[in-house]
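Anyone? Bumping this.
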Amino acid sequence: MAKTLEEINNKIRTGQVVVVTAEEMVDIVAEKGPKEASRTIDVVTTGTFGPMCSSGAMMNVGHPSPRIKLGGGQVRLNRVRAYDGLAAVDLYVGATALPDEDPRNSVFPGEFRYGGGHVIEDLVAGRRVLLEAAAYGTDCYPRRELAAWITLDEINEAYLFNPRNGYQNYNVAVNRSSRTIYTYMGTLQPQLASANYCSAGQLSPLLNDPHYRTIGLGSRIFLGGGVGYVVWQGTQHSPAAPRNEKGVPMAGAGTLAVLGDMKHMAAAWLRGASFRGYGATLIVGLGIPIPVLDEDIAAHTAVSDADIVAPVVDYSGAYPQRQPDVISRVTYADLKSGEIQVEGKTVPATPLSSYPRAKDIAETLKGWIAQGEFELTAPVQAIPGADSGMMMGPMPDNPPQTPESPQ
Amino acid sequence: MQVSHRIVLHFPRAVTGEPIIYRLAKDYGLMFNILKASVSPQEEGLMVLELSGRDTDFQHGAAYLKERGIRLQPLVQDIRKNDDRCVDCGACVGVCPTEALTLERPTMRLLFDPDKCVVCGECVPCCPVNAMELQF
């Protein structure tokens, strides 16, 4: 018999809810079957803790006296470039932004020790951040220069707004070339000597709701240690990616745009990160509860690492050249064993996404729900599914005819 | 003056076919003790070794290595894992040549075994959250 979300929320309020993690659900469904599991289990919690470059913080830092209009000027936070093309003191700092002084890859491979992700971690950790700005000055906003310490407590608003998080499955990166390469998938040893992957697999949110039946716009989530919401499908959302017989995508597919109040987040779940030779980014803790409304949802939340396959892609050739070639496919059970077979060679496999932290997130969210602190929301609108045919496309090959006049 | 230095050699791809260590011994009179080597033809290579001999011979030998495009790095004393920074990903596991850094199964927690570490320092720049620290 199907349950409603309101019935589940009533159980949360009265302390009768039965909530388990997506890892625990694998064995529960294997033992009881999806029908019985859908009767006894109300909520399944998921989690993931991995580098997510399409992340950033929107802020309003308050008006100084005299006032300044940052838009059209230049703003830095701890020397990292922030985007100011908004109202007077609204800012956005992206996870991959860098200080102008960073040598980048001029000494290869660059270290990228501090970037936008680190600014976000510093703010959330309660550390003060130096805002420096230059503006052109107007009658209403006369000030032209500003240097001030800001803290998360003292600024008006700060919310994490990540245009793309929670990738539903992802590539396994290898390097077929004869030199070490430095990528957003980590350092890859030459001649297929290492394989890096980046998904929580059976704990990953969208892999437990492959058809987006319960996760949609307005879903309340765990974000960065606080509460956030799904606000849109993420950029590069590609629900029409190939799927296996259980409906699980066999490559990167759905994505989510998420938002949440940074003032309630914790630095343990938002960590600035540096990828050698690639750049700075932010490791984001994301967890999504899935209401077990019926047998079908129960069956999907029982997805295990052995059921999920990921494409092995050469990051020395096919990926940078945007060629579609997939060397082979492996399961997350293979990957987590520590070794995969690629072109007849045994290759050590290591994750960039932290499974222990993903599990901690699923456990934390489970605790919030069990203690009645967190109720589930029904999506106000579904995100586009496989039947939408939506797939990310390449940039059209359309260079300007006269390079000096882009108009 | 007799000296003994523990150093890490980083070989570019082009020189891995040459008998570099033989030359150090024969032409510069240096004694060598290879602690760890990962050198294959046509790949970048890494070797940790102890070189002993007269100071002037060591200096000449080091100059010869640099002239051949080999990067020398003193072997530092110790590598430490900062547990407050570490997030238990596995970014360092794939670059560690001695399996001093491993993931425990099935918990996937990161383990560091200082006894297996040869302090080559590869994990330090590769850690995304700056959790691996060199201690001099």
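Late reply, but here is one note on the structure posted above: The radius of gyration of chain B is 17 Å.
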